[in-house]
Each structure stands twice: as C-alpha cells, then as structure tokens.
Amino acid sequence: MSTSNQKERTRFAPSPTGMPHIGSIWIALLQWLHVKSTRGELIVRIEDTDRNRFVPESEKAIFEALNWYGITHDEGPDIGGAFGPYRQSERLAIYKPYIEELKEKGTLYPCFCTAERLQEMREGQQRDKKPTGYDRYCRSLPLAEAKKKMNTEPYVLRLKMPTEGESTFADKIRGEISFSNALIDDQVLVKSDGWPTYHLAVVIDDHLMEITTVIRGEEWISSTPKHLALYKAFDWQPPVFAHVPLILGTDRSKLSKRHGDLSALSFRDRGFLPEAMINFLALLGWHPKGEKEMLTRQQISEEFRLEDVHAAGAIFNEEKLRWMNGQYIKALPPQRFIQLALPFVLQSMVAKGNREMVLPVSGKKISNGLLEKSLLAVQNRLQQLDETGAAITTYLEPKDDYAGELLIAKKSTAVNTIETLKMLEEYMQTIAESDYTEEMLEKILRQFITDKKLGVGETLWPLRVALSGEAVSPSPFSLASVVGKQETINRITLASQKLSSQHE
C-alpha cells in the first residue's frame, strides 16, 4: 500500500528460527536509515508461521540485538502499536476471512500431492535438468473430485498463478524487473493444518499494517510475482519493493558459517562497538558523497537514500571492520573505555570483592590504579575489546619462564647484554618517579643510549624482554610507565640474574 501523501512505513520481519544473523541486522539498519531519512516509521513483525523451525529463545535474541545495535522501532510485539498483534502466530483469526475470499475468487486450489510424490517430481526435474517447481498436477482436478477428496485426504491450498503474460514491477534499487508467469511456481499458501505460509501472511500483514516500502534481500526477488498476484487478487495496491544485495565474503561467495561466527550478538561478545558496527554495516553496498569513511549514526542517516544502495553484492571484510573498530576504541574517552573493557578483563581474571582482582597464574592482587594504567596503555593498540585481557597481562604478569638467550639482541652477546642490563638497573634508579611516563622515559633513555654510545637495539631489546618476558610486546617505555619505577627495576634485576646464571 503506497500513496503519495501517506507516511512512509517499512517493516523488519525476522523469523525466530535461530540466533539473528548479521545479514538480518544489516537489512534492519537499511530499513531504519530509510525511515529516518524519510521521517517514517519502522515496524517489527515476528514472522513465526514456520512452527517446525521455531526457536523459543530466538525472539528475545532478536530484540536484544536490535537494542545493542541501537536500531529503534516504532511498533512491535514488545511495545505494541495500532496495527497489532505483531506476531503472525497471533494473527491466525485475521487471516481466515482473506483465505475464504481467495477461495471464493478461485485464486486457490487444493493440492493432495504427498511428500513422496513431490520428492519424486523434484528428482525427475533435476535428472532432466529442468527448473524445479510444482507441476500443477492437482490444478486440473475436476471441482467435484477435489471437493470429495477434501473430505477424506489431507491437502494444502496453492496459489493459482496465471500461466500467460509477465509480472513486472519497478524495484527501488534495481529498476524494472519482469518474470514470465509460466515459470512461476504455484506456491503453497495454506498448509494442511490451516496455517498460512509466509507468502500469504506477509501480503496480508503488509497491507493491513499500511507498509509503503518493503526492503528485503535479493533472494526474495523471485517471490515477488507471487506476492503481486495476491495483491491483484485482493485488489490492493502493492507497496514499493527494494531488494538489497547479498552480503558476500572476501572470496565473493555468499556469507556463511565458513566465514566465521556471523550471529549478530557474537560481534558484541567479541568486543566490537555498536558505533563501529553501524558505520561498517552502513557502508556495505552504500557510500555517502566524498571519501570519508568514519561516519556517525546521524551523519549516515542524513545522507542515506535507499535508491543509492548498490545492486551488486556487498563484501563483508572483517579485517576492515577490525580496523574501523580499533579507530572507535581509540576515540573513546578514557573512563568510558575502561568501563567497556573491564567485562572482557573479568573473563580472564577473577574479581576479589569490589576493589581487587587476582591474576590467574601468580595469584597476584592488582590495584585499581595499576589496572587502569595498563588498560589505558593498550587502548590505542586494540582492535577488539576481547583482546584486552591478553594485552594487559604483559604489563601485569610478565612471563618469567623465558630463556635467558631471548634477552640477547641479534648483534649483541651474552656478556654485553649482562653489562647493559646492569647499567640499566643502576640508571633506572636515578630517574624520578614523576618521570615514569611513556613520553619522558623514551626521551630520557634515548639520551642515555646516546651518551653511553650504546646501540639502540642492543639496549632496548633486552629491556623490552626483561619487562615483558616476550619477544613481541609493547614498547619498553610503555611497559615501564605502567608498572612503575620499583617493578621496572625488579624485572631488570631478575633478567640480569637469569642471563648471568646461564653464563657463569
């Protein structure tokens, strides 16, 4: 239903058959952006007519995901509205008179084909390399015979598609699309238990809920002629259709489980920020004017136009998402970052009371001050918040089981490294506690290296390993600034003793 003076209304209509997929959230985002750009309304409708695949906890997860991504709606089963109920399973009584109307008009016909016959039919079509679809076997049954069989045999009701001509519609994204009616399947519209299938319920619901624009995935393009046939049978004006492209992996195949965990909430659980997700998802298949990629939700909604969405498949590049998420993490105010990162730290460390945390290996207690310093030290290096625990462990609990040889830089020797560590141990004691910041330590230590005519690598490498116990770690200046003067000296002393004991 769409008229020029009618308020723009679209709907997000997920099926509760599992955890919401990132592709569903992407479509919900496009719908949300469309109604924001047109000052319209977004309706959430739960399409739960497929009871065989119904997952009870799925609906809760759908709304949890919408809430986390910040995709708000104006009507739905959770908040109500003037066009409810918003679950199809609660609308069965609404559908009944429309089913009767279609029967009276001759738009439906009973089909008695068993599952076995349909399977044999499909196998034959595949064997003969013909398009698969119902062969209209029951369509030609005499009316009297059909009525008699309806009293004794289970049956479904199928849509009597026209067999001549074409079905044509103007797609908001793809332009004019046409189908030969002869190739369109006679879709099952009412199941043997009396429940409507998706194809019937969606048309009735979209009309009654005054949906003006249907935004959905391109996999529904081939179903649109069936829906248009129903709009014509009811003498209703169809909505505008906009079919968005599939999301593809970097290998240009349809995004699937083999591309990783793609449930919408898994991105939250892995430490992606909703702002980054919205920014990244909005740029799948759409781009604003100019080259800018970092966009706020408001900037996106102000520039977004549905007709600018590309018809070609959108590439989901998780490496780009990780990079973008890292930019958003960097931009967080310090206290907000700490607030968001702490739950991920708790996954690897055990809280003791309200103010203490204990490291998993040593059992060492961590003060809030040291924890906050270590968190802020790694903020600019993270691409996901679930990397936080591992990133700060280097600061809080360095490895002490490393081989002494790891301390020796490529162009140095054990003797020279031991001497360098002893020099560093003495010199670090002369640096004021107030100068134990990353910036000041780098300035002071580089000057020390110059004054003593030492090699940069031969000095900073053993210092880095002494402070972290690893070959790959944050800079020694960052490490020392976080752990503080005394702990820095302690770690250098232990490193010197480790290497000396192995080369006595």
UniProtKB/TrEMBL annotation:
Segments forming a coiled coil: none
InterPro entries, sorted: aa-tRNA-synth_I_cd-bd (IPR045462), aa-tRNA-synth_I_codon-bd_sub2 (IPR020751), aa_tRNA-synth_I_cd-bd_sf (IPR008925), Glu-tRNA-ligase_bac/mito (IPR004527), Glu/Gln-tRNA-synth (IPR000924), Glu/Gln-tRNA-synth_Ib_cat-dom (IPR020058), GluQ/Sye (IPR049940), GluRS_core (IPR033910)
Catalytic activity: tRNA(Glu) + L-glutamate + ATP = L-glutamyl-tRNA(Glu) + AMP + diphosphate
Record's subcellular location: Cytoplasm
Binding site for ATP: K257
Domain Aminoacyl-tRNA synthetase class I anticodon-binding, chain residue ranges per copy: 338-493
Gene Ontology biological process: glutamyl-tRNA aminoacylation
Domain Glutamyl/glutaminyl-tRNA synthetase class Ib catalytic, chain residue ranges per copy: 9-323
Pfam families: Anticodon_2 (PF19269), tRNA-synt_1c (PF00749)
Motif ('HIGH' region): 14-24
UniProt GO molecular function: ATP binding; glutamate-tRNA ligase activity; tRNA binding; zinc ion binding
Superkingdom assignment: Bacteria
Keywords for the protein's UniProt record, in alphabetical order: Aminoacyl-tRNA synthetase, ATP-binding, Cytoplasm, Ligase, Nucleotide-binding, Protein biosynthesis
Function (record text): Catalyzes the attachment of glutamate to tRNA(Glu) in a two-step reaction: glutamate is first activated by ATP to form Glu-AMP and then transferred to the acceptor end of tRNA(Glu).
NCBIfam families found in the cross-reference section: gltX_bact (TIGR00464)
Family membership: Belongs to the class-I aminoacyl-tRNA synthetase family. Glutamate--tRNA ligase type 1 subfamily.
Quaternary assembly: Monomer.
Designated name of the protein: Glutamate--tRNA ligase
Gene this protein is translated from: gltX
